[in-house]
Write a structure and sequence with these properties.
The protein is α/β, with parallel strands linked by helices. The chain has helices at about 15-35, 50, 70-80, 95-105, 145-165, 180-190, 195-205, 205-220, 225-235, 245-250, 260-275, 320-325, 335-345, 370-385, 395-405, and strands at about 40, 45-50, 65-70, 85-90, 110-120, 130-140, 170-180, 280-285, 295-305, 310-315, 330-335, 355-360, 385-390, 410-415. The two termini are about 50 Å apart.
Amino acid sequence: MKFIKTPVTGMQDFLPADMTLRRHVLGLIRDTYLSCGFHEIETPVVEHIENLTGKMGGENEKLIFKVLKRGAELERGLKTGELADSGLRYDLTLPLSRYYANNRNDLPSPFKALQIGNVFRADRPQKGRFRQFTQCDIDIIGDESNLAEIELISATTQALVRIFSEAGISGFTVHINDRRILKAMAIAAGFSEEQLPDVYVTLDKLDKIGEDGVKRDLLDQGFDENCAARIMELLAARESAKSVREFIANGLAETIEDGVAENLDHIMETARLLIDPSVNLTFDPTLVRGMGYYTGTIFEISIDRFRSSIAGGGRYDKMIGNFSGQDAPACGFSIGFERIVTILRDSGFMPEEAGEKKAYLVDKKAGDETMRRVLQQAAAERREGGTVAVEVLKKNAKFQVEMLEKNGYTKIQKVYADTVL
């Protein structure tokens, strides 16, 4: 059998320099969110298959890495056709909802959760998009007020500005919408309740295929031509509307729930007072978000000079009730960590590591006593907080030094038998 040295498609190996960048960005994210009062938790990467296939993950339910049953259970599964009893999580929101339903009696209310971890999707890999990737989520559970959305927008933009300002990158836009506005548009256009999920998936492609592409896609799916034309007319009104209220007044007054416009305008007006002046906040009625569990406010963040979003989230007030039978208001925001790291790496950014990194290169002929002295000296310097490596001096010392310098070592000392430390 021939062994394969490259990672599985869609997975990555990380070199030391990669890990320096990733560790730095994760540190900024974690420090920012903890300073905003969020509590860090952890959930397993493996979830019950019933949870993962519960019609809440939208298109991601087609991308689940399923885990086969084992032993006698697998043999029975081969007869029934039910081969999997669990799978790798495709996001952190569903596991959080299960976690909260299981532990809510031991958690504060509202509960402000911070979760950082790997998720898995059997997707088609492309630049900045992988099958295993890290998500950084904050969620507020138990707060039905607008404060949840406002805090999430404030904390997430604070983290992103802090990360990208070091690399001289700016120009963020927070796109905000409400699923109830999307529903009102679709109903006003003549679509039925049963057709809404498919309509949402098509509208979500607007930034990729344009208005003509969306209309053509709706017609290709067999939707009524008048309905397709009407919803495109409603979307076109976004260009002239100066507020959410004005947009809704243009044809949605009969189908929108009471208070939605006022609610969204209030979130935006208050959030603008808290976020960095360089961040743009805009109402975007074309914003959909692919997950099926969103019930209200939804948002995404993009960088003006890049096409893809780097963060997204929204309100999902009905998900926790699926686990406990008791609904709980919930809202979350997820940072696309891999896309952020890709942008920083492509821009040539590398963080300066705190403190001096020092290396001792000990000549083989120096003897055991010299090596013991070096190891004792290194141990003493580490106790003082230094980063110190000890290596045997190689024949190709030039390459050895170059690799150490590449990994951030600024002081390198070659040690021989007569070297004074």
